[in-house]
Design brief:
By secondary structure, the protein is α+β, with helices and mostly antiparallel strands. The chain has helices at residues 14-21, 39-43, 47-60, 87-90, 126-140, 167-172; strands at residues 4-8, 65-70, 73-82, 109-117, 145-148, 176-180, 186-191. The chain contains six helices and seven strands; from the N terminus they run E-H-H-H-E-E-H-E-H-E-H-E-E. It has a seven-stranded mixed beta sheet with strand order 1-2-3-4-5-7-6, sandwiched between helices. The termini are far apart. This is GNAT family N-acetyltransferase.
Length: 192
């Protein structure tokens, strides 16, 4: 059995990201731009424009997240980086908004905002490993705080709604709830 491993999404790994997300860009053609681009602007973009936006971001560096692999096959993704890169995550109208408005611009306050896995690879515990890799990536990149805004429960264990992660995996990784602006969606934090 091939081992599971993780690597940052650097320009030389763009093809792996593209392979993982498939021709439609995963999650209804999002290409993991949901929190990166304001809603009004994102709604005007087609899948190719979102893909090009994300490719440009990856090529510009630093890595916007971590890829998970089984052997050489990309199977998972977690977006992790400074809150300042995620305008929608910081919006005053969202459950993920920062506790302190200064956190939105603080380069040492990071967010773990999205997870994606191949359908055939879900349910194997990779979310735990991806979250652990995201925390280590944040720590090694100088973050002092990392936050997530996961979902408490979904109707199906493999629901697309788990793109924000589950409370269960964040709790297992040592995150604590710091705010709850909506039932089922706590803001969780880990001090590094």
């Amino acid at each position: 059995m091939e081992e599971f491993g993780t690597l940052p999404l650097t320009p030389d790994r763009w093809d792996d990201f593209e392979t993982l997300f498939g021709p439609s860009g995963a999650c209804y053609g999002c290409w993991c731009t949901h929190f990166r681009i304001p809603t009004a602007e994102r709604k005007l973009m087609d899948g190719d424009a979102k893909k090009q936006f994300m490719k440009s971001r990856v090529m510009a560096g630093p890595a916007p997240g971590v890829l998970g692999y089984i052997g050489k096959r990309p199977v998972a993704w977690v977006q992790v980086g400074a809150r300042s890169e995620l305008p929608k995550w910081n919006s005053l109208n969202t459950v993920s908004r920062p506790l302190d408005s200064a956190d939105a611009d603080d380069p040492a306050v990071w967010a773990i905002s999205c997870f994606f896995m191949n359908a055939r690879d879900r349910g194997n515990g990779y979310s735990h490993r991806m979250l652990s890799a995201a925390v280590e990536f944040a720590r090694s990149s100088g973050a002092r705080i990392v936050e997530g805004c996961p979902i408490e429960r979904t109707k199906q264990s493999k629901s697309v709604g788990l793109y924000v992660g589950s409370v269960r995996i964040f709790e297992a990784a040592g995150f604590s709830e710091v705010a709850k602006r909506k039932d089922g969606r706590p803001l969780m934090r880990l001090d590094l």
